[in-house]
Design a protein that fits this description.
The protein is an alpha+beta fold and 925 residues long. The chain contains 14 helices and 51 strands. The strands form 9 sheets. The chain has an 18-stranded antiparallel beta sheet that branches. Helix 7 packs across helix 8 and helix 7 packs across helix 11. The radius of gyration is 30 Å and the shape is globular.
Length: 925
């Protein structure tokens, strides 16, 4: 091993480590100053003083959750649980403890048993997430508690998700039971229940199949408790502490194996749900009314609206939720160009708000960019996008609706943990406060000087104090609020039609007060007669969004893992309407969660608290091999702003490697410090080669798509020739600069659209005792063009150049460079490469599970790439060209880690040149 190889390995390792942060860490726009509010069993960490108004309410939910679940699992905690609460997704996405995305409701991490939850204003959502995540705390207590946690943590990959996530969702199902029933009923009646052996981990599942997997797992846990009892259910979890194999656990706890359990469970689910569909005469919507098309993988569409002869909706057919428009010829295209969308929008809110449009073509919606909430106004004709932030008046923007004349936007949001409603005058840029409310207000709609919205109210379900949503009507002229519905069911997306009726979605059923769930159907209520609903649909799946314009109704219907847009004439639905019985009112006389003042004496500022996360030593000694020692240590502070890791390898008395790393994550720039010490004995040269390196790096993300990084490196290299009794010393100073833009998106395993651009400049000079002088420039560019159904055209460009006295040479050939030449057959200091190709899916869904191997393999998809390579050797001024084909097989190991097998064939256009065959294996998380 020579010093240049050590140097290259070291620098390349640092490059990959550096730009890993672009995907792992968030964009910090706030500096958190944590405080701690202690309760009996929790330490509540928060950084926003606004929480102090609702801390007693948070405490009561936490402690109630603690009591009922510790009793259920018969477990005790000998420590207080660190509970982190963040003010909206804007703060939650900035946490430095663990990576989260906008689809994450909450998270529990195992190193320090920290529980993280965002506060969005919705107490119903908040209560559900706390109940779900606390079950993971119980699981960690049972599975990982002990003096030395690391070996227990390493067993995590053997614990099935159907058990861990199923228990968590089952114990919190009361708050989302209607959703659970919709997803499992959909799978059961369509004979699409997921095999239990495929639910060891959910990472391999196709898009929009993860949430159904959660809910099916919850129903499995419910089935086990009903069939075998609570004690046996809990024993399954506790038996896993000392076991690995699922069948050995189930045979002891239940007396059956996984295959037999699946057989009984599937039979029960199919029987139950098919009977439910039959007895209630449930049907699917008329498929001829569906206006969106199914794709290779499940697609979800959201918030459809009409504008003139066009239909506008949100969809994720390419993997990212974006706006699409369909004209009268039924052609679908992107409404907002992807480059405009990527520059201004990270994601669009869909659950608490609807999209709206004015008569003059102003599209109105709510979204986030760089962890800030914005109102977006997009002019369909001029294609100009305007974003407005109301940070002074609205902390969290929840919902918006633009008036038909395009003059005003009505907003619902959160200010100081209270709901507020505003009118924003677009022309005057004036914000007028209309009202505030202690309860969570969302899904606002405006028409004819009236606002319609949903509001969360407290209720009792199965002796549990919780929340449900009702519809309210607000008269702007008289400043009067009227409650429209008064049930313990949940109403969603109300819309005022013909000024006399309200169209909405509800899970109302006659026996809701007995089972606390229903089916999400479409209803109408007369404002003059609020005690009767008119039911417009009776579906198997569920209705999730609705929009009405004159006699046309657009709605989103969930079925077969897809959520599609349907278009009806209102008479098509009302022809089969049913009047329901008198609606029981929600009259809660019991004690509510009260808002109280918090004693500031109990609150204390967070003080630096650092501890070990992982410790894994290995020591072995023999007279023949000598000392072999491996060590990995990882530590962090409680709030995740300081992280360190040490890894070392010792092989005998002359070979060792020590790597020390520190990360500072408090601010938006991420600061990295890395120290490495290596010693390698070369028996052929009878020499010991030593390397001592120090690296200081700063990484700064501009947004989710682009970032820069700079690394300062100092390397001290010592070459000690033992038999020749002399020592050679060399020093190298390096400055590395990187700039990356990445807009690539993909639905599942392969990218379908977007580009990645990466520029790297590395400079070394004879300063500060440096012995090397060179400049290296690298530019990588790849671009994908979506052809539909996972077909893509792609281009890939690589420009590599090195200058100076100690310039380096690059390999010209190989499967990822010029495929028509072997790796090191040609080396050059100046290389230009271009690949043009098309990706063709051969098998979309192999879905073959090789359970009989260890580790197992889950075969997923097979792709073919046909490409042409062009290469230019700048030193020799010579051009090359080649034709090639690549086959890519995607698999998962332990249903968690992607493992990709690639087989490439290539040959230069010159017939006298040989064929080249490459086989590579790459993997990751």
């Amino acid at each position: 091993m020579n010093f240049m190889n050590l140097n290259k390995f070291f620098v390349l390792f640092l490059f990959s480590l550096f730009f890993l942060f672009a995907e792992v860490y968030c964009i910090k726009t706030d500096v958190f100053k944590y405080k701690i509010y202690p309760t009996e069993n929790f330490d509540v960490y928060y950084s926003d003083e606004k929480f102090e108004k609702i801390l007693p309410q948070i405490e009561q939910i936490l402690e109630e959750t603690f009591v009922k679940n510790t009793e259920y699992f018969d477990v005790k905690f000998d420590y207080k649980i660190p509970f982190f609460i963040y003010y909206g997704y804007q703060q939650f996405l900035q946490n430095t403890i663990v990576y989260v995305s906008e689809g994450t409701g909450g998270v529990t991490e195992a190193f320090k048993n920290r529980l993280l939850v965002p506060y969005t204003g919705s107490m119903k959502f908040f209560q559900h997430v706390i109940n779900h995540e606390f079950i993971h705390e119980v699981q960690f207590n049972i599975l990982y508690s002990g003096v030395w946690r690391t070996p227990l943590l390493l067993k995590s990959i053997f614990y099935p998700n159907w058990l861990l996530e199923g228990l968590a969702e089952y114990r919190s199902a009361l708050y989302t039971k209607t959703l659970q029933e919709m997803l499992v009923r959909d799978m059961a009646v369509s004979n699409k229940l997921l095999p239990l052996e495929h639910l060891h981990n959910f990472a391999h599942l196709k898009p929009h199949m993860v949430l159904p997997a959660y809910e099916q797992s919850a129903k499995l846990i419910e089935f086990i408790e009903t069939e075998y009892g609570r004690e046996r259910l809990v024993s399954i979890l506790k038996l896993y502490r000392n076991r690995f194999d699922v069948n050995s656990v189930l045979s002891i706890a239940l007396g059956i194996d996984l295959k037999k359990l699946q057989q009984k469970f599937f039979e029960e689910m199919r029987t139950y749900y098919n009977y439910e569909v039959e007895i209630n005469s449930m049907t699917d919507l008329d498929v001829s009314k569906k206006i969106t098309k199914n794709d290779v993988y499940p697609v979800h569409y959201y918030s459809p609206i009409m504008y003139k002869d066009k239909i506008i909706y949100l969809g994720d057919s390419e993997g990212k939720i974006m706006f699409y428009v369909k004209d009268k010829t039924n052609k679908e295209k992107l409404l907002i160009p992807k480059n405009v969308f990527d520059k201004n929008i990270d994601f669009v809110q869909t659950d608490t708000t609807r999209v709206s449009v004015s008569e003059d073509g102003i599209l109105c919606f709510v979204g986030l960019k760089n962890n800030k909430s914005y109102l977006y106004l997009y002019n369909i004709f001029t294609r100009r996008l305007k974003k407005i932030n109301f940070k002074k008046d609205i902390d969290l923007l929840v919902s918006s609706y633009i008036s038909s004349d395009g003059e005003n936007v009505y907003l619902a949001g959160i200010k100081d943990c209270k709901s507020v409603i505003f009118k924003y005058e677009i022309k005057n840029k004036k914000l007028l406060k209309l009202k505030e409310d202690e309860n969570f207000v969302s899904q606002i709609y405006f028409n004819n000087e009236k606002l319609v919205y949903t509001k969360e109210l407290q209720c009792k379900k199965s002796d549990v104090l919780t929340w449900q949503t009702d519809i309210f009507l607000y008269d702007l002229q008289n400043n009067l609020e009227q409650q429209v519905t008064s049930t313990i069911t949940d109403e969603e997306f109300p819309q005022l039609i013909d000024n006399q009726r309200i169209l909405f979605i509800s899970d109302y059923t006659d026996d809701y007060d007995k089972k606390f769930y229903g089916v999400k159907n479409l209803f109408i209520v007369e404002i003059s007669s609020l005690t009767k609903f008119t039911k417009l649909t009776n579906v198997i799946g569920g209705v999730n969004y609705v929009y009405c314009l004159k006699d046309t109704i657009l709605l989103c219907y969930y079925r077969n893992f897809n959520q599609d847009v349907y278009k009806f004439n209102i008479t098509d639905l009302t022809q089969n309407y049913v009047f329901l019985s008198e609606i029981s009112t929600n009259d809660l006389k019991e004690q509510k969660y009260e808002l109280q003042n918090v004693s500031l004496k109990n609150i204390k500022p967070y003080k630096f608290n650092f501890s070990t996360d992982l410790l894994l030593p290995f020591i072995y000694y023999s007279s023949y091999e000598g000392l072999i020692m491996l060590l990995y240590w990882q530590g962090s502070d409680m709030v995740g702003e300081h992280k360190s890791a040490v890894s070392s390898v010792v092989l005998g008395d002359k070979n060792y490697s020590v790597n020390i790393q520190y990360e500072f994550l408090k601010w938006r720039p991420i600061i990295l410090l890395n120290i490495v010490a290596e010693s390698v004995y070369n028996i052929q040269e009878d020499a010991i080669k030593r390397l001592l390196g120090t690296n200081l790096g700063i990484y700064y993300p501009f947004n989710r798509n682009s970032a820069i990084g700079i690394i300062f490196s100092y390397l001290n290299m010592i070459d000690e020739h033992l038999s020749e009794f002399y020592t050679e010393r060399k020093r190298e100073n390096i400055v590395t600069f990187e700039y990356e833009i990445n807009t690539i998106i993909g639905k599942y395993l392969e990218p379908v659209r977007g580009y990645n651009s990466l520029f790297i400049a590395q400079v070394s000079d004879r300063i500060y005792d440096g012995d090397f002088s060179y400049c290296i420039f690298k530019y990588y560019f790849v671009n994908y063009f979506n052809l539909g159904k996972e077909w893509s055209l792609f281009t890939r460009t690589q420009l590599l150049a090195s200058f100076g006295k100690d310039k380096i040479n690059f390999y010209f050939g190989g499967p990822e460079r010029f495929s028509g030449v072997w790796y090191n057959d040609i080396v050059s200091s100046q290389i230009g490469l271009l690949r043009l190709g098309v990706r063709i899916p051969l098998v979309y869904d192999i879905n073959y599970y090789m359970w009989y191997l260890f580790p197992d393999l889950f075969l997923k998809s097979l792709y073919q790439e046909n490409f042409v390579d062009f290469g230019f050797d700048g030193e020799r001024q010579k051009f090359y060209s080649a034709l090639g084909v690549k086959f890519k097989l995607y698999t998962f190991v332990l249903q968690t880690f992607v493992l990709k097998f690639e087989l490439s064939f290539a040959r230069q256009f010159d017939v006298n040149k040989p064929y080249y065959l490459y086989f590579t294996i790459t993997g990751g998380i």
